């Protein structure tokens, strides 16, 4: 039986969310196409994660995305899963950040999803099967002070994903948006919140497990908006 193929963006740090998702899909029997701008880092992930394949790609560049997806198809076959986990989030008030910060965040978070979905959805429609998931956070629903260059792009990303879902769901493709209402447990967040207990953070592997669950939901019960948070998180 031919293995299924998953495309995962934002596979950066070896302990980050993208790598955890890549590892989970590898363990689940997928061939995993890992997308990141850092080719050297991808080579290390290939050595550590079985059945993984690195493709250096800037998701803000539509031509680069199209070339990369073509290379994935040539090397591995037609992907049935897209997880858009790449994120850029410049923080600051609307007076502190520049308009260029907002634009760059939009390119990664929203246009990246647009380019990837356009490159992969036609094949999924032809197969009458597939899954597209974008990882988000509560900025997709609210614009807090200090998030002026970030929240608008995540809100746009969520609404774009919803529009894609309403188009593709009737054609057999599951589209979902996963809200991660938590601080992810990676070294830099530990440094930013040094006094917080383990229970304050969410583990990348926990996020990966939820992405896996959403990907394999039954067609008679697809979720679009999904949320996860640690038990102590106020919401």
Question: How is the secondary structure organized here?
Answer:
Elements: E1 5-9, H1 17-27, E2 31-36, H2 39-48, E3 52-56, H3 62-75, E4 81-84, H4 99-127, E5 130-136, H5 151-168, E6 173-180, E7 183-184, H6 187-192, E8 201-202, H7 204-215, E9 225-228
Parallel strand pairs: 1-2, 1-4, 2-3, 4-5, 5-6, 6-9, 7-8
Low-confidence sequence ranges: none
Number of domains: 1
Please compute the radius of gyration using only Cα atoms: 17 Å
For the record, the CATH architecture stands as 3-Layer(aba) Sandwich
Q: What is the number of strand segments?
A: 9
How widely separated are the two ends?
A: 44 Å
- The structure class reads alpha/beta
Tally of DSSP helical segments:
7
List keywords for this structure.
235 residues; alpha/beta; Rossmann fold; 7-stranded parallel β-sheet; two-stranded parallel ribbon; globular
Descriptive overview:
The chain has 235 residues and is an alpha/beta fold. It contains seven helices and nine strands. The protein has one domain (5-228): Rossmann fold. The protein has helices spanning 17-27, 39-48, 62-75, 99-127, 151-168, 187-192, 204-215, and strands spanning 5-9, 31-36, 52-56, 81-84, 130-136, 173-180, 183-184, 201-202, 225-228. Helix 1 (17-27) crosses helix 7.
Quick summary:
By secondary structure, this protein is an alpha/beta fold.
């Amino acid at each position: 039986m031919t293995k299924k193929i998953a495309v995962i963006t934002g596979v950066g740090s070896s302990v980050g969310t993208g790598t955890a998702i890549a590892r989970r899909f590898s363990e689940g029997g997928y061939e995993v196409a890992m997308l990141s701008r850092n080719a050297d880092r991808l080579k290390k992930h290939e050595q550590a994660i079985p059945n993984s394949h690195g493709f250096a790609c800037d998701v803000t560049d539509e031509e680069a995305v199209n070339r990369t997806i073509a290379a994935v198809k040539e090397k591995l076959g037609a992907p049935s899963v897209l997880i858009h986990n790449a994120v850029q989030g410049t923080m600051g008030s609307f007076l502190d950040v520049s308009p260029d910060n907002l634009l760059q965040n939009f390119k990664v978070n929203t246009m990246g999803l647009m380019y990837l979905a356009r490159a992969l959805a036609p094949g999924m429609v032809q197969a009458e099967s597939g899954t597209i998931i974008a990882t988000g956070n509560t900025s997709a629903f609210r614009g807090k002070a200090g998030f002026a260059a970030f929240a608008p792009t995540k809100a746009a990303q969520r609404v774009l994903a919803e529009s894609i879902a309403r188009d593709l769901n009737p054609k057999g493709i599951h589209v979902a948006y996963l809200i991660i209402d938590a601080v992810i447990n990676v070294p830099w967040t530990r440094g930013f919140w040094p006094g917080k207990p383990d229970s304050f953070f969410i583990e990348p592997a926990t996020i990966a497990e939820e992405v896996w669950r959403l990907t394999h939901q039954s067609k008679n019960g697809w979720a679009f908006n999904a949320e996860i948070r640690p038990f102590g998180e106020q919401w």
